[in-house]
Fold this sequence. Notes:
- The protein has helices at 7-16, 18-24, 26-35, 40-65, 74-95, 102-121, 129-139, 145-155, 160-182, 186-192, 195-212, 215-219.
- 77% of the residues lie in helices and 0% in strands.
- It has one domain (2-219).
- The chain is an all-alpha fold and 221 residues long.
- It is globular.
Amino acid sequence: MTEALALPTAFLLGLLGGTHCLGMCGGIATTVSLSAPSGFKGFSFLLGYNGGRVISYAIAGAILGSLSWLIESPSIQLALRTFAGLMLISMGLYIAQWWQGLTKVEIAGGVIWKHIQPLASNLLPIKSLPQAIALGFFWGWLPCGLVYSTLIWSSAASDWYLSAQLMAAFGLGTLPTMLLTGLLAQQVKQVLQMSLTKHISGCIIMLMGAYTIPWQGIISL
């Protein structure tokens, strides 16, 4: 089932989750775009912000993936892969707006975020590329059910390097939506915010979650 933990899959998760990114990070992306100078320099600030965000995802993946030595037991790995699949299904329901149970996970993550948010807020308004990168790095730790679900999914790889790559690919998958949001592409944003778009994206993610679950291993128990 290692094919279920492939980089293209992680990228697709980020791309499909873009509808959720509009609500969670779209506002700050727009703020970065509006506070930056016009032209290429302003666009570089937006890229820097998103680059910092992707770096934070990769670090989180490496941290969780480095705990693989704790889950060498096949039965524990089976349980983790099953849990990862269930989290993806929950993510699909969340994005499709059919079930908002992941908001409770986001509330739990708020314990850490309350210590990071002041650092991120002090970086506004953006005046330099390093400042934009730092803002993105801090903002990447914003409590988000989409990120948490993907993080648990990536940790099922049981390898810190692969988990980091998966989270980086996920972050890159969110780039199209975030860049379009930052550039104020209103027509595209309206399409992404349509209920039908969210329902289709949610259903695809749920199918990916079902595919991640090691059904043969569960049946053989």
